[in-house]
Design brief:
Elements (H helix, E strand, L loop, with lengths): L12 H10 L13 H11 L11 E5 L2 H19 L1 H11 L4 E8 L4 H23 L4 E5 L7 H7 L6 E10 L21
Antiparallel strand pairs: 1-2, 2-4, 3-4
The structure holds flavin mononucleotide.
């Protein structure tokens, strides 16, 4: 065999398509904990994405009980300020049920074009992460609520806002429910030029 898989077993296109199309954003998880080794393995695969100038701009934070509690407290306060007590307490209750917590940040770059490319690479990493977890039956939800833009959020991580910004707060765990999704036919979104 020649090409990309010379000397190796080629992944089945059918299996790959099923993995890509079957992955869903998971909103509700069981309470079962995901082994840390599975997450670390998925993070290793997350890094194997294109990144211009090989900047490897991603940083990952796995949140333990203390950090989670701090993020929940911060988010509850943010929601309370804009939507009031009962909305805030509803969020607190829901966030307390999330089994696995991970934050992906991107390196700040004073060159905005470079930073944009680095952000693109981090988004690719997020998708690798999602697929690697999904292949092991683990679901992920990418969240970009107000809380991740709060300076206090980075402080909880022990990160410096001059050096990193949050790409997302990711919850992971075993799906309690897998939602359905549809996509527009790609032909409607594609122009083939002469
Ligand atoms: C950058 C980004 C931010 C997202 N933020 C949220 C979010 O804050 N809350 C949420 O419920 N879903 C969020 N999502 C998940 C999308 O809503 C989800 O991907 C979309 O509904 C399609 O579902 P699927 O991932 O199952 O195909 C985000 C996805 C991306 C790529």
């Amino acid at each position: 065999m020649s090409g990309a898989f010379a000397g190796e077993q080629s992944p089945s296109p059918v299996v790959l398509a099923a993995l890509i199309k079957g992955r869903r954003t998971i909103h509700d998880f069981t309470s079962d904990a995901v082994p840390e080794a599975a997450v670390l393995e998925a993070l290793e695969l997350a890094c194997w994405v294109p990144n211009h100038h090989r900047t490897e701009p991603w940083r990952f934070y796995l949140l333990g009980e203390t950090a989670r509690a701090q993020v929940i407290e911060l988010n509850t306060a943010i929601v309370r300020a804009s939507k009031g007590d009962s909305a805030a307490e509803a969020k607190r209750k829901r966030w307390n049920t999330m089994p696995g917590w991970l934050v992906l940040t991107c390196q700040v770059n004073q060159d905005s074009a470079r930073e944009r490319e680095d952000y693109a690479a981090c988004c690719c990493a997020a998708q690798n992460l999602a697929l690697a977890l999904w292949a092991r039956g683990i679901g992920l939800k990418w969240g970009t609520g107000k809380v991740i833009r709060s300076p206090a959020f980075l402080e909880i991580l022990g990160a410096d806002a001059a050096e990193e910004f949050a790409v997302g707060l990711f919850w992971y765990g075993y799906p309690a429910e897998v939602p359905e999704q549809v996509r527009r036919p790609v032909r409607e979104l594609t122009r083939i030029l002469a």
